[in-house]
Amino acid sequence: MKKHNFSAGPCILPKEVMQKASEAVLELDGIGLSLIEISHRSKEFVSIMDKARSLALELLGLEGKGYQALFLHGGASLQFLMTAYNLLDKKAGYVNTGTWSQKAIKEARLLGDVVEVASSQEHNFNYIPKGYSVPSDLDYLHLTSNNTIFGTQIKEFPETNVPLVCDMSSDIFSRQLDFSKFDLIYAGAQKNMGPAGATLVVVKEDILGKVSRKIPSMLDYSIHVKQESMFNTPPVFAVYVSMLTMQWLKDLGGIAAIEEINERKANLIYSEIELNPVFSGFAAKEDRSLMNATFNITDDALKDTFDTMCKEAGISGINGHRSVGGYRASMYNALPMESVGVLVDIMSELEKKG
Ligand code: PMP
Description:
Elements: E1 4-5, H1 15-26, H2 43-59, E2 67-72, H3 75-87, E3 91-96, H4 99-108, E4 113-119, E5 141-144, E6 146-147, E7 152-153, E8 164-167, E9 184-188, E10 199-204, H5 221-226, H6 236-252, H7 254-275, E11 279-281, E12 292-297, H8 303-312, E13 315-316, E14 327-330, H9 337-353
Helix pairs in contact: 1-6, 2-6, 3-4, 6-7, 7-9, 8-9
The site of 4'-deoxy-4'-aminopyridoxal-5'-phosphate has 11 residues, from helix 3.
Protein backbone atom coordinates (compact mmCIF):
# COMPACT_ATOMS: atom_id res chain seq x y z
CA MET A 1 0.00 0.00 0.00
CA LYS A 2 1.24 3.48 -0.85
CA LYS A 3 2.23 5.35 2.30
CA HIS A 4 1.84 9.05 2.90
CA ASN A 5 4.70 9.98 5.20
CA PHE A 6 3.98 12.97 7.44
CA SER A 7 6.73 12.13 9.93
CA ALA A 8 8.30 15.08 11.76
CA GLY A 9 11.80 13.77 11.33
CA PRO A 10 13.55 11.68 10.25
CA CYS A 11 11.13 12.09 7.42
CA ILE A 12 10.33 11.63 3.76
CA LEU A 13 13.10 12.18 1.22
CA PRO A 14 12.75 12.35 -2.57
CA LYS A 15 12.26 8.90 -4.16
CA GLU A 16 15.01 9.43 -6.73
CA VAL A 17 17.44 10.41 -3.99
CA MET A 18 16.64 7.23 -2.06
CA GLN A 19 17.14 5.20 -5.25
CA LYS A 20 20.52 6.73 -6.03
CA ALA A 21 21.63 6.54 -2.39
CA SER A 22 20.77 2.86 -2.14
CA GLU A 23 22.67 2.13 -5.37
CA ALA A 24 25.71 3.97 -4.01
CA VAL A 25 25.73 1.73 -0.94
CA LEU A 26 26.27 -1.19 -3.30
CA GLU A 27 28.54 0.63 -5.73
CA LEU A 28 29.42 4.29 -6.04
CA ASP A 29 29.33 5.63 -9.61
CA GLY A 30 30.82 2.51 -11.23
CA ILE A 31 34.04 2.48 -9.17
CA GLY A 32 33.56 -1.10 -8.01
CA LEU A 33 33.33 -0.08 -4.35
CA SER A 34 30.60 1.03 -2.00
CA LEU A 35 30.28 4.62 -0.87
CA ILE A 36 30.58 3.39 2.72
CA GLU A 37 33.72 1.31 2.23
CA ILE A 38 36.00 3.88 0.65
CA SER A 39 38.31 6.33 2.38
CA HIS A 40 36.84 9.70 3.19
CA ARG A 41 40.15 11.05 1.81
CA SER A 42 39.57 9.35 -1.58
CA LYS A 43 39.09 11.71 -4.49
CA GLU A 44 35.57 10.35 -4.92
CA PHE A 45 34.47 11.29 -1.42
CA VAL A 46 36.39 14.57 -1.28
CA SER A 47 34.50 15.66 -4.38
CA ILE A 48 31.18 14.63 -2.77
CA MET A 49 32.01 16.72 0.33
CA ASP A 50 33.10 19.68 -1.80
CA LYS A 51 29.92 19.48 -3.81
CA ALA A 52 27.72 19.24 -0.71
CA ARG A 53 29.42 22.28 0.81
CA SER A 54 29.18 24.37 -2.32
CA LEU A 55 25.56 23.36 -3.07
CA ALA A 56 24.54 24.44 0.44
CA LEU A 57 26.03 27.91 -0.07
CA GLU A 58 24.65 28.16 -3.60
CA LEU A 59 21.08 27.26 -2.60
CA LEU A 60 21.19 29.79 0.24
CA GLY A 61 22.61 32.48 -2.04
CA LEU A 62 25.72 32.82 0.13
CA GLU A 63 28.48 31.97 -2.31
CA GLY A 64 31.34 34.45 -2.26
CA LYS A 65 29.94 36.27 0.77
CA GLY A 66 32.44 35.13 3.40
CA TYR A 67 30.55 32.04 4.55
CA GLN A 68 31.71 28.45 4.98
CA ALA A 69 29.49 25.38 4.97
CA LEU A 70 30.40 22.45 7.21
CA PHE A 71 28.89 19.01 7.70
CA LEU A 72 29.47 18.00 11.29
CA HIS A 73 28.46 15.18 13.65
CA GLY A 74 26.37 15.36 16.80
CA GLY A 75 23.04 16.60 15.46
CA ALA A 76 21.57 20.03 15.95
CA SER A 77 21.78 19.31 19.68
CA LEU A 78 25.56 19.56 19.62
CA GLN A 79 25.19 22.92 17.89
CA PHE A 80 23.33 24.19 20.96
CA LEU A 81 26.67 23.83 22.75
CA MET A 82 29.05 24.57 19.87
CA THR A 83 27.49 27.92 19.00
CA ALA A 84 27.94 29.07 22.59
CA TYR A 85 31.44 27.61 22.86
CA ASN A 86 32.58 29.54 19.80
CA LEU A 87 30.60 32.77 20.11
CA LEU A 88 29.57 33.39 23.72
CA ASP A 89 32.13 35.51 25.51
CA LYS A 90 29.99 37.38 28.04
CA LYS A 91 26.31 37.51 27.22
CA ALA A 92 24.00 36.06 24.61
CA GLY A 93 20.29 36.56 23.92
CA TYR A 94 17.83 33.77 23.16
CA VAL A 95 14.26 33.91 21.94
CA ASN A 96 12.45 31.06 23.65
CA THR A 97 9.96 29.61 21.18
CA GLY A 98 9.81 26.03 22.41
CA THR A 99 11.53 22.85 23.45
CA TRP A 100 14.48 23.20 21.09
CA SER A 101 15.14 26.83 22.06
CA GLN A 102 15.04 25.78 25.71
CA LYS A 103 17.59 23.07 25.08
CA ALA A 104 19.83 25.60 23.33
CA ILE A 105 19.48 27.99 26.29
CA LYS A 106 20.42 25.24 28.75
CA GLU A 107 23.70 24.52 26.95
CA ALA A 108 24.60 28.20 26.53
CA ARG A 109 24.13 28.78 30.28
CA LEU A 110 27.08 26.46 30.87
CA LEU A 111 29.32 29.04 29.25
CA GLY A 112 28.08 32.54 30.02
CA ASP A 113 25.18 34.86 30.73
CA VAL A 114 22.03 34.14 28.82
CA VAL A 115 19.20 36.63 28.53
CA GLU A 116 15.83 35.33 27.46
CA VAL A 117 14.95 38.25 25.20
CA ALA A 118 11.39 37.02 24.58
CA SER A 119 9.35 33.90 25.20
CA SER A 120 5.99 32.41 24.25
CA GLN A 121 6.07 29.83 27.03
CA GLU A 122 3.03 31.28 28.81
CA HIS A 123 0.85 30.05 25.93
CA ASN A 124 2.59 26.72 25.49
CA PHE A 125 4.55 28.20 22.58
CA ASN A 126 1.60 28.55 20.25
CA TYR A 127 2.87 31.85 18.82
CA ILE A 128 6.09 33.70 17.92
CA PRO A 129 6.96 36.66 20.17
CA LYS A 130 7.21 39.96 18.29
CA GLY A 131 8.16 43.55 18.98
CA TYR A 132 10.76 42.75 21.64
CA SER A 133 13.91 44.77 21.91
CA VAL A 134 17.33 43.25 21.51
CA PRO A 135 20.06 44.56 23.85
CA SER A 136 22.97 45.94 21.83
CA ASP A 137 25.66 44.39 24.03
CA LEU A 138 24.92 40.76 23.17
CA ASP A 139 27.56 38.51 21.64
CA TYR A 140 24.74 37.12 19.50
CA LEU A 141 21.00 36.57 19.34
CA HIS A 142 19.82 32.97 18.94
CA LEU A 143 16.56 32.13 17.16
CA THR A 144 14.76 28.96 16.14
CA SER A 145 13.23 29.65 12.73
CA ASN A 146 10.72 26.79 12.83
CA ASN A 147 9.41 25.13 15.94
CA THR A 148 8.94 21.55 14.84
CA ILE A 149 6.91 20.48 17.87
CA PHE A 150 4.54 23.44 18.13
CA GLY A 151 4.14 24.21 14.42
CA THR A 152 5.14 27.87 14.58
CA GLN A 153 7.58 29.64 12.27
CA ILE A 154 9.25 33.03 12.36
CA LYS A 155 8.03 35.04 9.38
CA GLU A 156 9.85 38.28 10.12
CA PHE A 157 13.27 38.22 11.69
CA PRO A 158 14.31 40.97 14.10
CA GLU A 159 16.41 43.83 12.79
CA THR A 160 19.48 43.99 14.99
CA ASN A 161 23.16 44.83 14.86
CA VAL A 162 24.20 41.86 16.97
CA PRO A 163 25.20 38.66 15.16
CA LEU A 164 22.25 36.39 14.40
CA VAL A 165 22.45 32.64 15.04
CA CYS A 166 19.57 30.51 13.84
CA ASP A 167 18.54 26.91 14.31
CA MET A 168 16.90 26.11 10.95
CA SER A 169 16.74 22.34 11.51
CA SER A 170 13.15 21.97 10.41
CA ASP A 171 12.80 24.56 7.66
CA ILE A 172 16.19 24.84 5.97
CA PHE A 173 15.86 25.03 2.16
CA SER A 174 12.07 25.36 2.36
CA ARG A 175 11.50 29.10 1.87
CA GLN A 176 13.31 32.13 0.55
CA LEU A 177 14.98 34.38 3.10
CA ASP A 178 17.82 36.82 2.98
CA PHE A 179 20.23 34.32 4.47
CA SER A 180 23.00 36.90 4.56
CA LYS A 181 21.22 38.42 7.58
CA PHE A 182 22.43 35.44 9.58
CA ASP A 183 25.95 34.96 10.88
CA LEU A 184 25.51 31.31 11.72
CA ILE A 185 22.85 28.86 10.58
CA TYR A 186 22.65 25.24 11.65
CA ALA A 187 20.35 22.38 10.76
CA GLY A 188 20.29 18.66 11.43
CA ALA A 189 20.11 16.81 8.12
CA GLN A 190 17.12 14.64 8.95
CA LYS A 191 14.34 16.90 7.66
CA ASN A 192 14.97 18.60 4.34
CA MET A 193 18.40 17.09 3.59
CA GLY A 194 19.08 13.47 4.37
CA PRO A 195 19.39 10.81 7.04
CA ALA A 196 20.29 11.70 10.62
CA GLY A 197 24.01 11.82 11.29
CA ALA A 198 25.14 15.03 9.61
CA THR A 199 24.45 18.60 10.64
CA LEU A 200 24.85 21.49 8.27
CA VAL A 201 26.56 24.54 9.75
CA VAL A 202 26.86 27.69 7.65
CA VAL A 203 29.08 30.19 9.35
CA LYS A 204 30.32 33.65 8.46
CA GLU A 205 34.05 33.39 8.90
CA ASP A 206 34.57 36.82 10.40
CA ILE A 207 32.54 36.03 13.55
CA LEU A 208 35.00 33.31 14.56
CA GLY A 209 38.08 33.66 16.76
CA LYS A 210 36.62 36.29 19.08
CA VAL A 211 36.04 34.40 22.33
CA SER A 212 38.72 34.20 24.99
CA ARG A 213 38.18 30.57 26.07
CA LYS A 214 40.11 27.63 24.72
CA ILE A 215 37.94 25.52 22.45
CA PRO A 216 38.38 21.73 22.21
CA SER A 217 39.30 20.81 18.62
CA MET A 218 36.13 18.90 17.76
CA LEU A 219 34.02 21.84 18.96
CA ASP A 220 36.04 24.52 17.20
CA TYR A 221 34.44 25.83 14.00
CA SER A 222 37.74 27.38 12.88
CA ILE A 223 39.40 23.96 12.90
CA HIS A 224 36.56 22.42 10.91
CA VAL A 225 36.76 25.30 8.42
CA LYS A 226 40.52 24.95 8.08
CA GLN A 227 40.19 21.20 7.55
CA GLU A 228 37.43 21.69 4.97
CA SER A 229 34.94 19.73 7.07
CA MET A 230 37.31 16.74 7.22
CA PHE A 231 38.92 17.21 10.62
CA ASN A 232 37.85 13.66 11.41
CA THR A 233 35.97 11.05 9.43
CA PRO A 234 32.74 12.73 8.35
CA PRO A 235 29.37 10.92 8.32
CA VAL A 236 29.91 9.91 4.71
CA PHE A 237 26.51 8.41 3.94
CA ALA A 238 24.56 11.30 5.47
CA VAL A 239 26.71 13.83 3.60
CA TYR A 240 26.24 11.96 0.32
CA VAL A 241 22.46 11.79 0.66
CA SER A 242 22.33 15.47 1.67
CA MET A 243 24.33 16.32 -1.45
CA LEU A 244 21.87 14.34 -3.62
CA THR A 245 18.89 16.08 -2.01
CA MET A 246 20.42 19.51 -2.54
CA GLN A 247 21.11 18.61 -6.18
CA TRP A 248 17.48 17.45 -6.49
CA LEU A 249 16.34 20.79 -5.11
CA LYS A 250 18.62 22.74 -7.42
CA ASP A 251 17.31 20.82 -10.45
CA LEU A 252 13.76 21.58 -9.33
CA GLY A 253 14.49 25.31 -9.43
CA GLY A 254 15.95 25.86 -5.98
CA ILE A 255 14.34 27.29 -2.88
CA ALA A 256 12.05 29.65 -4.85
CA ALA A 257 10.43 26.71 -6.62
CA ILE A 258 9.99 24.53 -3.54
CA GLU A 259 8.64 27.46 -1.52
CA GLU A 260 5.77 27.82 -3.95
CA ILE A 261 4.92 24.13 -3.60
CA ASN A 262 5.29 24.27 0.19
CA GLU A 263 2.91 27.23 0.34
CA ARG A 264 0.33 25.38 -1.71
CA LYS A 265 0.57 22.30 0.54
CA ALA A 266 0.28 24.42 3.69
CA ASN A 267 -2.65 26.44 2.30
CA LEU A 268 -4.50 23.25 1.51
CA ILE A 269 -4.29 21.84 5.03
CA TYR A 270 -4.75 25.12 6.90
CA SER A 271 -7.88 25.98 4.88
CA GLU A 272 -9.32 22.63 5.86
CA ILE A 273 -8.43 23.14 9.54
CA GLU A 274 -10.05 26.57 9.45
CA LEU A 275 -13.23 25.57 7.65
CA ASN A 276 -13.82 22.16 9.22
CA PRO A 277 -15.46 22.40 12.68
CA VAL A 278 -14.15 18.94 13.62
CA PHE A 279 -10.61 20.35 13.77
CA SER A 280 -8.92 23.30 15.44
CA GLY A 281 -5.43 24.61 14.75
CA PHE A 282 -2.89 24.88 17.55
CA ALA A 283 -0.61 27.68 16.31
CA ALA A 284 -1.59 31.36 15.96
CA LYS A 285 -2.66 31.97 12.36
CA GLU A 286 0.04 34.51 11.48
CA ASP A 287 2.79 32.26 12.84
CA ARG A 288 1.74 28.94 11.33
CA SER A 289 4.56 26.82 10.00
CA LEU A 290 4.77 25.82 6.34
CA MET A 291 6.47 22.63 7.48
CA ASN A 292 4.56 21.34 10.53
CA ALA A 293 0.79 21.83 10.81
CA THR A 294 -0.40 21.17 14.38
CA PHE A 295 -4.09 20.61 15.06
CA ASN A 296 -6.58 18.96 17.37
CA ILE A 297 -9.81 17.14 16.94
CA THR A 298 -12.65 19.06 18.61
CA ASP A 299 -14.84 16.04 19.33
CA ASP A 300 -12.94 13.27 21.09
CA ALA A 301 -15.59 10.76 20.09
CA LEU A 302 -14.38 11.05 16.48
CA LYS A 303 -10.73 10.38 17.26
CA ASP A 304 -10.81 6.59 16.79
CA THR A 305 -12.70 6.92 13.50
CA PHE A 306 -10.19 9.50 12.23
CA ASP A 307 -7.22 7.34 13.28
CA THR A 308 -8.70 4.32 11.51
CA MET A 309 -9.43 6.32 8.36
CA CYS A 310 -5.85 7.63 8.32
CA LYS A 311 -4.44 4.15 8.80
CA GLU A 312 -6.57 2.72 6.01
CA ALA A 313 -5.41 5.48 3.66
CA GLY A 314 -1.73 4.77 4.39
CA ILE A 315 -1.18 8.00 6.33
CA SER A 316 1.79 7.67 8.62
CA GLY A 317 3.39 9.83 11.30
CA ILE A 318 0.69 12.40 12.10
CA ASN A 319 0.46 11.98 15.86
CA GLY A 320 1.28 15.21 17.65
CA HIS A 321 4.27 15.52 19.96
CA ARG A 322 3.42 14.56 23.54
CA SER A 323 3.85 18.16 24.74
CA VAL A 324 1.13 19.43 22.39
CA GLY A 325 -1.07 16.37 21.80
CA GLY A 326 -3.47 16.10 18.89
CA TYR A 327 -1.99 15.83 15.43
CA ARG A 328 0.96 17.18 13.51
CA ALA A 329 1.21 16.89 9.75
CA SER A 330 4.80 17.53 8.72
CA MET A 331 5.07 18.59 5.10
CA TYR A 332 8.75 18.75 4.32
CA ASN A 333 10.10 19.49 0.85
CA ALA A 334 9.84 15.91 -0.43
CA LEU A 335 6.23 15.34 0.64
CA PRO A 336 4.08 15.39 -2.50
CA MET A 337 0.97 17.56 -2.74
CA GLU A 338 -0.96 14.34 -3.36
CA SER A 339 -0.30 13.19 0.23
CA VAL A 340 -1.71 16.42 1.66
CA GLY A 341 -4.72 15.95 -0.61
CA VAL A 342 -5.34 12.45 0.78
CA LEU A 343 -5.21 13.75 4.37
CA VAL A 344 -7.49 16.70 3.64
CA ASP A 345 -10.03 14.41 1.92
CA ILE A 346 -10.18 12.27 5.06
CA MET A 347 -10.61 15.34 7.24
CA SER A 348 -13.57 16.54 5.21
CA GLU A 349 -15.06 13.04 5.05
CA LEU A 350 -14.88 12.94 8.85
CA GLU A 351 -16.86 16.15 9.06
CA LYS A 352 -19.66 14.49 7.09
CA LYS A 353 -19.65 11.55 9.52
CA GLY A 354 -19.56 13.80 12.60
N1 PMP B 1 16.20 21.90 16.58
C1 PMP B 1 15.03 21.66 15.99
C2 PMP B 1 14.21 22.82 15.48
C3 PMP B 1 14.59 20.35 15.82
O1 PMP B 1 13.43 20.10 15.22
C4 PMP B 1 15.39 19.28 16.30
C5 PMP B 1 15.01 17.83 16.14
N2 PMP B 1 13.79 17.52 15.75
C6 PMP B 1 16.59 19.59 16.95
C7 PMP B 1 16.97 20.91 17.05
C8 PMP B 1 17.48 18.51 17.50
O2 PMP B 1 18.09 17.88 16.46
P1 PMP B 1 19.03 16.61 16.64
O3 PMP B 1 18.14 15.48 17.00
O4 PMP B 1 19.67 16.50 15.29
O5 PMP B 1 20.01 16.92 17.71
